[in-house]
Amino acid sequence: MPNRLAHETSPYLLQHADNPVDWWPWAPGAFAEARRRDVPVLLSVGYSSCHWCHVMAHESFEDEPTAAYLNEHFVAVKVDREERPDVDAVYMEAVQAATGQGGWPMTVFLTPDAEPFYFGTYFPPEPRHGMPGFQQVLEGVQAAWRDRRDEVGQVARRIVRDLSERTLAVDTTRPPAAEELHSALLGLTREFDGVRGGFGGAPKFPPSMTLEFLLRHHVRTGSEAALEMAAATCEAMARGGIYDQLGGGFARYSVDAGWVVPHFEKMLYDNALLCRVYAHLWRATGSELARRVALETADFMVRELRTAQGGFASALDADSDDGSGRHVEGAYYVWTPQQLREVLGEADAAVAAVHFGVTEEGTFEEGASVLQLPDTDRLWDAGKIESVRARLLAAREQRPRPGRDDKVVAAWNGLAIAALAETGAYFDRPDLVQAATDAADLLVRTHMDWHARLYRTSLDGVAGDHAGVLEDYADVAEGFLALAAVSGEGVWVDFAGLLLDTVLVHFTDVDGALFDTADDAEILIRRPQDPTDNATPSGWTAAAGALLTYAAYTGSTAHREAAEKALGVVRTLGPKAPRFISWGLAVTEALLDGPREVAVVGPADHPVTGQLHQTALLSTAPGLVVAVGEPDSGEVALLRGRGLVDGRPAAYVCRNFTCAAPVDDPRALAARLAD
User: Fold this and answer.
1) How many other CB atoms sit within 10 Å of the CB of residue 347?
2) Where is the Spermatogenesis-associated protein 20-like TRX domain positioned along the sequence (predicted)?
3) Which of 29, 250, 501, 507 is the most exposed place for a label (fewest CB within 10 A)?
């Protein structure tokens, strides 16, 4: 019989709806039930494409005896971390403080007042590799609750007190200067892997925001080291197993330092961020590899993640059926030499094995290999390569596909809108710009209410119950502003302004610091506030970037000052931990560059208007703001007072409240933006 999760909209929670565990969603009723029964709460946090979440579910939550014990002695609460990042954040902070590490599935035991007292992540069903078995953990916690209740209560209260006393010392009185960015670059240089690209060792995650900072820093300063680190990392990832050599798109991370074997889940946010980075690398260098990867990644998002309503689904699972009934990680993606021969024949398979790095020993498990792209591009001509890729892709599509989490997350769709709009504009792909527009329309229709408040998620066109967090407002505003630059439709600037006004009113402290949740959001044991960038830009740094761009469009002093105050965190963290404040560093590059503003005025059907607009979009100036419209249209403040020059379309370039004389020649505009 289904449990309470059967009524939820999260695909991850619905995966657990038929467990014998009597799950509750995160809700006041769960804690009221724990008080009534005088039992602790088991909080289990995960997400749909989490491999070890599936493992623990199969081993323990689908096991009848384990579920029976759990139901008798606990109230069990299941949370989708992608749906409730606030809940995930406050308890992950507690887990990391107590154990020194974290991860998912996250397993936390709480009092009925939601105070944590025992922590962990994955627990095997039986003791293994120094980890206690899950049944042992349940019995130990239950015994402590029964026999040492006072001690449990003291521990829980101390943990909550310690968390509440943690403060973030950030000087918001002035933004960072060029010196902090130079120190950050030196720090990244020390961590750079000069042999395999990327930063640090295994496991290796795509450093999307770091790459964006490096590209912007190169443009502003001329640093060749910054460009070389970015280009080398992008090429290593594009040639590695972390990139899907047949279908495009990136896996979540590489388990090794050489980008060979990925953890095969594919996340919308990774692909949106990386699509934009590769498009920007092409814009800076003309790299054909960067162009191909940007377009293939954009096509992957539209083909594999687009929903019927026009939004983008959250993720594809790492696991799938291997054809024999086993659910195996990577089964959909890996190949053996024999499988190549079955699809391509002996002659083509032999060359394909070299071209894609498929060996008899294998690079993954059970003799299978993850496709890579060693430096063997000249084995075949381009036409032959595409033919072989198409044949292998068609054969792969006959395999059982990984599951898809159809949940639409507002923040991640904002990232996708920005990436698709820019990639479509750069490479003359109006279909990609239309996909970005469709997703933006969905966010306005479904996720945004009449008070400019966002819902975090939707499923099948129906908004979920959970309020948007700071990253939702910031990333959606970022997407809308990027779409405005490409489309010339000022309404997207207006929508971004509504969201950013909500940020100023409900997420901003009196000193300019930012919180992850609104001042009227559900009260947890701590109001989360994390400025560090992780897999995505933090809400804090993303908001700084969107505020800065919006201020350039509108001339709003309030939004500009809010951005500068928020960037004070970069002064604190940039020199010490540049990889964890990289989007803040990238936004600071835009701040130091102005950001420059370009107003293109002219009739929409005049060819010079389009040429000037495209020239502006292709400029590498950090954080460049572009508006295009009819003369003195007034739709966007940046266009007001701008007219034609001798009856011809013109571009006005402004920087730090000073505007140069307008130009009507695309070459003159490109030269001015390159200064």
Assistant:
1) 9
2) 2-163
3) 29
Torsion 542-543-544-546 (CA) sign: positive
Query: Cα(first)–Cα(last) distance of the chain, in Å?
Result: 68
pLDDT at position 11 over 80: yes
pLDDT category, 322, cuts 50, 70, 90? confident
Q: What is the pLDDT of residue 94?
A: 87
| 133 DSSP 8-state letter | P
Residue 629: its H or E element = strand 625-629
Assigned token pair, 41: 């709460």
Q: Rounded distance, CA 548 to CA 590, Å? A: 8
- Is residue 378 pLDDT above 80, yes or no? no
- Distance between CA atoms of 387 and 381, rounded to whole angstroms? 10
Largest CA distance in the chain: 88
Strand runs labelled E in 307-391: 315-316, 319-321, 327-329
Where would I find the H helices in 74-195?
A: 85-99, 134-147, 149-164, 178-191
Q: Where are the beta strands (DSSP E) in 380-520?
A: 404-405, 408-409, 457-459, 462-463
Evaluated on CA atoms 81, 83, 89, 94, the torsion sign reads negative
Domains of the chain: 4-164 (3.40.30.10), 197-317+405-593 (1.50.10.10), 333-398 (no CATH), 597-673 (3.40.30)
- Tokens 């960072």 belong to residue: 176
User: Do 44 and 26 form a contact (C-beta atoms < 8 A)?
Assistant: no
Question: 3-state secondary structure string, 561-618?
Answer: HHHHHHCHHHHHHCCCCHHHCHHHHHHHHHHHHCCCEEEEECCCCCHHHHHHHHHHHC
Query: pLDDT averaged over the chain?
Result: 94
Instruction: Give the angle 554-506-79 at the CA atoms, nearest 5°.
Output: 120
Provide the pairing of β-strand 650-655 with 597-601. antiparallel
Buried b or exposed e, range 88-122, using 16+ CB within 10 angstroms:
bbbbbbbbeebeeebebbbbbbbbbebbbbbbbbb
Per residue in 554-583, pLDDT (tens digit) is 999 999 999 999 999 999 999 999 999 999
Q: CA-to-CA distance for 596 and 626, rounded, in angstroms? A: 9
Where does 397-453 have alpha helices with state H? 410-426, 430-442
414 burial (CB, 10 Å; 0-12 / 13-18 / 19+) is buried
CA distance 246 to 323: 20
What are the angstrom distances between the C-alpha of 349 and each of 247, 338, 355, 386?
A: 18, 9, 10, 14
Name the DSSP class of 116. E
- Residue 59 CA to its chain's centroid (Å): 30
**Facing residues of 463 across strands?**
458
Percent with pLDDT over 90 in the chain? 85
Q: Is there a contact between 566 and 504 (Cβ–Cβ < 8 Å)?
A: no
Looking up tokens 């299978």, which residue turns up?
A: 368
Give the pLDDT confidence of 125-153 residue by residue, as tens digits: 999 888 899 999 999 999 999 999 999 99
Q: Is 374 left (phi over 0), alpha (psi -120 to 50) or beta?
A: beta
pLDDT at 381: 82
Please determine, for residue 433, whether its predicted confidence score (pLDDT) is greater than 90.
yes
